[in-house]
Amino acid sequence: MNAHSSPRRRRLAGASALVAAGVLTALTVPSAALAAEGDTTIDLYNVNDFHGRIAQSISKDSAGAPSPRDGDAAGAATLAGALEQLRGTDTSTSAFVSSGDNIGGSTFESFIQDDQPTIDVLNQMDLSVSAIGNHELDKGQDDLHDRVIGGQGDGVRAAQWDYVSANILDSATGEPAFDPYAIEEISGKRVAFIGATVDLVGQGLVAPDGIAGLEMGDITTEVNKVAERLTDGNAANDEADVLVLLVHDGAESSTPVSPTSNTDFSRAVYGVTPKVSAILSAHTHQTYSYAITPTGGTTPRPVIQTGSYGFNLGHVQLQVAADGTVTAPVAENLRLVDGTYAKDAAVQATVDTAVKEADRLGAVELGTIDRDLKRAVQSPDADGLQSENRGGESTLGNFVAEVQRSQTERQGSQIAFMNPGGLRADIGAGTVTYKEAAVVQPFANTLVVLDLTGDQIRQALEQQWQPSTASRPFLKLGASAGFSYTYDPEATAGARITSMTLDGEPVDADTTYKVTVNSFLATGGDNFAAFKGAAAKQDSGMVDLEAQVQYFRANPEVAVQEDQRAVGVRVTDAPEGGFQPGDDVRIDLSSLTFSNAADQGGTVSVSAGDQELATADVDNTIVDTTDEQGRATLTFTVPEGTVATPADARASALAVAPTATAPTVTTDEPLVVTLPNGQTITLAVTVPIETAAEPTDPTDPTNPTDPTDPGTPGAGDPTAPGTGLPGDGTGTGDVDGDGVADGVRPGTAGGDLAFTGADLVVPGIAAGVLLLAGALGLVLARRKRAEREATVLTD
User: Fold this and answer.
1) What is the tens place of the pLDDT at every residue in 393-406?
2) What is the 3-state secondary structure of 595-643?
3) pTM beyond cutoff 0.85
4) According to the UniProt entry, which residue ranges have a biased composition of type Gly residues (predicted)?
5) Is 384 in the same domain as 337?
C-alpha cells in the first residue's frame, strides 16, 4: 500500500437510518427459497457506470407515454427503492456493490457540484464496495484519495464505501496503490471483493499527469495474486470464504466472450482463478448475464454487466455448501425504469436539493459566442413560424461535433459526427450559461470513439438518407471541423457520397480513422448501422454536456464557423475521352447555405486554371426535410484555344515582333468551384485549358538559346554564319556593341526597310517579359494545383 491508502472502512448503517424514517418495506428475497438445506445464501446487488445519474430521465413516445431506451436513468430514488424492496429489513444476507464509474461523466446536477450529490445518495443506499473505474480518476489520484475517499475540504462528505483495485500499481514498489480488496461479512461468510481496473494508460482514459507514479498491471495476473493470498490458509493473510471480482472492464457486446479473444477482459473471464465465484463487470455499458467455466475449473461462474446509469440493477445469488463449494443459481438484470419499484422519499429529497442547486449554478456564465448557434429550420408556416428541420446542416450541429472531437483528442479522435435529434435547443449570440448549454443536449449521452474505415464512414453518410419506413426521410449529421464531403442528391442509394476529405487530404476507403459519436449513435441509433459495426469502441465516459462545458472553459470566446461541411454537386456526364473545346458543361450545386444563419447568399463561380468560366447567384429558398437549400447552376462552354501559333522561324523581324508571345501548352485543368464564403471545391472532372509554357533554363548546356553554349554553328554560336533574323537560331552575339550581330549581314524587312538593330531591342524586351510572365503564371498555377490537389471542399 502507498502512503495514500487508508484503513478499510465499514459501511454506515444507512439502511437502519431509513428504517427509522419509515421508508423501508419488508420483503424477503424470493430467490432464497432456491437454496438447498445446509446451504448459505448470499445475495449481491450491483450497478456499474452509474455516472452520477441521480435524477430520473426516461424517454417518452410520440404520445408522451414512458418509452424507456438504453441510456435512460431510473434515478437514484428508484434505485434506492428497489434495493429496499429486494433486500428487506435484514441486510445482513446481502450487499450492494459497484463495478466502478460511480462518479465522473455525470449529468449537470451532479457534475456541477463535483459529484457530491452522487456520493451522498450512494452513501444513503449503503453502497459497500466499489471497483475503481477510470472516471474515478478524472481529476487525478489525489482528488480520489483526498476528496472522494478522504472527504477533505469544507462541506465535503466522503464516500463511505471501500474503493478497490488490485492492478493499479505504485510504479516505485510494484504493489497496489489502492486497497486491492475489501471483505464484507454476509450471511456469516467472509466475502472478499477484489477490484480491478481497465488499462488507464494504454487506452489513454485519464490525463497522464493525474496518474503520475502509477502503472497498470495485468488484470488476470494481479487478481490471481490477491486470490491466492486470501485462500492460502494463512490467517495472517485475511482469509475469505468467497471471492468475487469487481472489474471495471467488460465485453464489447452482449455475446459471451470467446476464449480466443485477445482482450484483457476475455483473458480475465477465462484466466482468473476458479476460486473467484462471480465476475461483475463494467466500462463498456453493455447489458449481459451468462455463465462461463474458467480455465482449470469445473463450475460455471456468472459474468454480468448491468448496462449503465442505473437502467438495470444486477442481482447475483451465491450459495455456499457445507463443504465450501460456491455456486451461482441466479444471475440476472432487473429493469428499474418500468415503474416496478417505488421511489425512496429520503433519497428523492437529496436529489431535489441537488437539482435546485444546479438550477442556481446553471446561471453561471460559461463563455460567449459571436453569433447564434442554431438548428436547421423548415419553411415558415401560415403563422410565420419555422419548425426544426433535422434534414438540414446547421451551425449548431457542426459546432457540437467539433466540441466532441476536441474533447476526445486524448483517445485519438480525428472526426466527429452529431445526430440532429440530439440537439433540443438553440444558443443565442452573447453570453452562454451552464443552463443554456445543458438544454441543448439533455440526454446525457457519453462520447464514444470508434475505429471506422473510410468506407464505413462513407456508409454512415449514406445512411443519412433514411429507410422508407422512417418518420423522417433524411437526417443530417453535424460534422467536425476539417472534415468535408460532396454528394450527388440524385444518385441511387449507396452511391450518393462522391468524395470525402480530412484536413484537405482524401479519406481512404481502407484506412482506419478514430471517429467520435455519442453513445446513442454508437449503438446504431437513428438507423446509422455503420457506427454499430465499428471494429473497436471506446466509451470515453464523458457526457456530451460536460464536453461542452470543458470546451468553453478552454475557449471562452467562440467564433461561430459557417463553412459548409457538405455540398451537393452534380456535373454533366463527360463524353468519352473527356470534355473538349466547344462542349457544354452544367454544374448543379446545393447545400451552399444554412437555413438558419445570417449573411448568406451571394454568387458562386467555376474556374479552370486561372480562367473563370461562369458565375451564378445562389438561391437561398429552403427545401423542407432536406439539406438542399442554397442552390445554384453554373453553365459554360469549354473555351477554344486563343493563343496565337508562333510565326515561322524564318519570318522577318517586323512580322514576328508584334505577335511575339510565350509558347503555350494545353493542360487538363480541374474545375474549381468557389463558394460565396471563399470555400473551394475541386471537382473530379477536367477541361483542356491553354496556358503559357514554362521557359527553359538558360544555364542548361543543352539549351539551344544559351549564348554561352559552344554548340554547333547556327545554334547560338556568335561566330556562326546565319541570317541574324530573330528566331532563326543563328549568330546573334553583338561583341562590338554596334547593335548588330557581329559577323552577320543585317537583314531586311520585306526587302525594303533596313534592319537597324534598334528594332530588336523593344520587341526583345517584350518577348522576355512575356516569357517571364508565362513562367510565373505557370509556377503559380502549379503551386495552386499542388495546394488543392485531392482537395474536395476547403476554406
Assistant:
1) 999 999 999 999 99
2) CCCCCCCCEEEEEECCEEEEEEECECCCCCCCCCCCEEEEEEECCCCCC
3) no
4) 724-734
5) no
